[in-house]
What does this fold into?
Amino acid sequence: MTSTATSGKTPGTDRQFVTSLARGLRFLAAFGPDDRTLSNQELALRTGLPRPTVARFTHTLCKLGYLMSHDDPPRFSLAPKVVELSHAAYAATGLRDIARPAMATLSEMGDVSISLAVPSGLSVRYIEMARRPQAIVLNLDVGALVPLPQTAIGRAYLAALPEDRRAELMAQLEADDPATWAAQKNRVAAAVAAFPELGYAASFGDWKPELNAIATAIRITDEADPLLLSIGGLSSILTPELAERDYIPALLSTARAIGSRLRRHFL
It folds into this structure.
């Protein structure tokens, strides 16, 4: 699956857009948390790039130290140099110092999981999580990718997008998985319509029958994609009634606090 530009003009109409850089970043993002190695063919399928282009990218990124090559025929893995980049970026954004303490406080409300995520193609990727040891949700951790249509955090992302970008992304979701989109499009439409007034999106058993979740978006600048904050828990713990009474106000309050502090961080 392929991803779109994050904001502003489309690549085809933006003369300042560097396509080769966008492809390289998409290439690195193709690796998931469970991928030890990927072949050129697998990378071609995930990025939508031709195999000769993929071969040039893997060769170049290996030379630069961002990928490592294994076996013959070669398979590739992310190199430690990528971790160095991610740690530097994570520290520079202020998320480590600003979001994590607020998320930890939110997790003390109960046996729920607090997740912070960013868009990643047709999914969202967790970049930070907080939960008490006894919280049983799903076997998900930092780096995990979750789908857009059936999750609260994915619906919050779609709802927070400008209308033209949302329509483009929805068309991609339908083309990528017609069956899932047909099953979820009415719920997505309802979430998008209600988001401006409610400020959050919900998914009660739509992704996993035993899992409920609520989520909202944190906008730092108008140009960049939002951060996404969610609370997830077992349906027996995070009931719709308890979500409305306790967790939704806490989620929105936490998101406002994180957003305010992050905006000040970049002034």
